[in-house]
Amino acid sequence: MRIGMVSLGCPKNQVDAEMMLALLEEDGFEIVDYVDGADAVIINTCAFIDDAKREAIENILDVIEMKEDGIIKKIIITGCLAQSQKEELLQELPEIDAVIGIGANGSITELVKKALSDERVFDCPDQSLMPLDGQRILTTPEHWAYLKIADGCSNCCTYCAIPGIRGSFRSRKKESIVEEARQLAHSGIKELILIAQDTTNYGSDIYGKLALPDLLKELCTIDGIEWIRLLYCYPDKVTDELIKTMSFEKKILHYMDLPLQHADDRVLSAMNRKGTNAELRELIEKLRTAMPDIVIRTTFMTGFPGEDEDAFDNLALFVNEMEFDRLGCFTFSPQEGTAAYDMPDQIDDDTKIRRGEIIMNDQYSIVEEKNLNKIGKVYRAIVDDYDPYSDCYIGRTYMDAPEIDGLLYFTSDCGYDVGDFATVRVTGVKEYDLIGRDIKSN
């Protein structure tokens, strides 16, 4: 039986998909990288914000059309939308053959077999039953991989549906993570990207302390791993020990994804975010003092209920003064079941969008200046691809996470394979990307 999968949303969801694919392959299913002609198609959905839900429904409707045309046989829905809107999916889309919540990911083979036997499947057990450990079929390139160290979240930000969908925060055992990292290194992975809903909270539930520094030190001992990158770090859990570990361990990139969401004290409090404007400034200064070359990526939200003009001005001022290296901005999307859904002083969509555009326009000017200042500098880059038409390599420096940040396009007289490292001098800028040439070439 041929199984195709479309995985949507964040890297954490992608890892879940990779684990389900491994279970299916182990049980004898043929995993195909296409949808047309598959016996069953799994849509692994996201439901973080309304845009993600719309994308999931659009993909489901596309495969329903294929099923009606006889191109595919069965449709199976997994992931966050399956977990959060299970009854609605079954009732409103009778063409769906199975809705499987994240707690049933470990039973995916049995449930797929039932669906293929013409049984309509509905299985959404408690989220805590979702396995955190297991083999994976990597869907990332051959030289980098995500490494999920925990799942769920206990922060309970008032705008976020994740705790209700994914459950409480659960860390993986350190030994299991390190063993998986060794296997990844053995398979040729050179860059590990650590992910969780809250990476910096790692270990608090099973070790009674914030144990990310301990985990990082062990990962740094693994031969073959050259870069370790941190995503989804919460500011209130970026400890002095973590900063020190990042400063001294050579394999840990001086890069931190630090979603801040806002910078106005009143809005931060309404969001149930820890920290104040002054404390966030202090943390950023501490990071930059310890690692002057650190690249900080952050995310902000505009249009949260009660964000008046003064609050937005505080956010805009913060963005311009902090001069973040990487920044994303999205508008508040009220999610049913969250505290912010029914908060008073909701902001109209036009205002949300306008404020978001202001932030991104300001950020573009900041990045433009930062990139221009990189011209003439030399960076180590990992090769992601080669474009034969332009005779150009496509890589990334430590400053850029894959699939999120910018790229470095460079020419070379040397031959590189994907996953190799090159030393490149920056010669130009193209919007968010850099252009350069290998310094070994004439």
Blueprint (SSEs and pairs):
Elements (H helix, E strand, L loop, with lengths): L1 E6 L3 H16 L3 E3 L7 E6 L4 H19 L5 E6 H5 L1 H7 L5 E3 L7 H9 L4 E3 L20 E5 L1 E2 L10 H5 L3 E2 L2 H13 L4 E5 L16 H8 L7 E4 L9 H9 L3 E6 L7 H6 L6 H14 L4 E8 L6 H14 L3 E6 L17 H24 L5 E10 L4 E5 L11 E4 L9 E10 L2 E6 L4
Parallel strand pairs: 1-2, 1-3, 3-4, 4-5, 5-6, 7-10, 10-11, 11-12, 12-13, 13-14, 17-19
Antiparallel strand pairs: 8-9, 15-16, 15-18, 16-17, 18-19
Write structural notes for this entry:
The protein is globular and about 60 Å long. With 442 residues, the protein is of the alpha/beta class. Helix 8 (212-219) packs parallel to helix 9 and helix 12 (309-322) runs parallel beside helix 13 (349-372). A six-stranded parallel β-sheet has the order 2-1-3-4-5-6, with helices on both faces. The chain has a six-stranded parallel β-sheet with strand order 7-10-11-12-13-14. The protein folds into three domains: 2-129, Rossmann fold (3-Layer(aba) Sandwich), CATH 3.40.50; 144-372, tm_1862 like domain (pyruvate-formate lyase- activating enzyme, Alpha-Beta Horseshoe); 378-438, OB fold (Dihydrolipoamide Acetyltransferase, E2P). It is built from 13 helices and 19 strands.
